[in-house]
Amino acid sequence: MTPTFETSVPGIVIAITFGVALSTIMLWMFRVPRAVSADVAKARRSLDMARLILVPTTGSAYSQRGVELACRLAQEQGASILLVCVIEVPRTLPLGAPLEQAEAEARSALDTAREVVALHNLPVRSIVQRARTAGDGIVAAATDHRADLIVTGLASRGEHGHPGWGHTADILLHRASCEVIFDRVPQ
Questions:
Q1: CATH code of the domain in which 81 resides
Q2: What digits encode the pLDDT tens for the residues 15-67?
Q3: Residue 134: inside a domain, yes or no?
């Protein structure tokens, strides 16, 4: 029995569809990417290297905004998040002194920050760090955990309502061993 035109139409349609799909795939595979300068390529690669993003949190609105920004950066790069809440221990007390109120506030701030990270389905760890100043605690945590990037939110006003970076930001700028990104909330 010889094939008729009506019985070979589906075969022709399948062959044409296969040919078009194969041609499209081949064109995509062999396309030449747009040329970029070495400086642009280096800048792009440098951001892809962040695998652990440290985010200090206090539970404040500007702090949670920093967590959100870090999550968006982490999604782009496939990074994980390390949340840090620093308990500032007065110099009159030893670092290991019990501070139940401060520890409860730190756990609450970390719980809220973990909720933000959970919305992005990112790997997250959280720690409570004790230090004499918040900046020293953040720098110590970044060094101990080998953070690639610190992302922190800043209030629109510094201490006593004056505009400025504040002591913590100053410490991060001068002592952090990794890149630091500040997110200042507009007034």
A1: 3.40.50.620
A2: 899 889 988 888 888 887 777 777 777 766 666 678 999 999 998 988 999 99
A3: yes
Q: Give 138's Cβ-side CA count (13 Å radius).
A: 29
**CA 86/CA 181 separation, integer angstroms:** 18
Q: Is 38 a domain residue?
A: no
- Matching residue, tokens 């991060």: 172
Domain that holds residue 77: 49-184
Q: H-type helices in the chain, by residue range?
A: 5-29, 38-48, 61-77, 100-118, 134-144, 167-175
Q: Which residue has the tokens 């200042």?
A: 184
What is the domain count for the chain? 1
Residue 71 located in a structural domain: yes
Per-residue model confidence (pLDDT) at position 38: 77
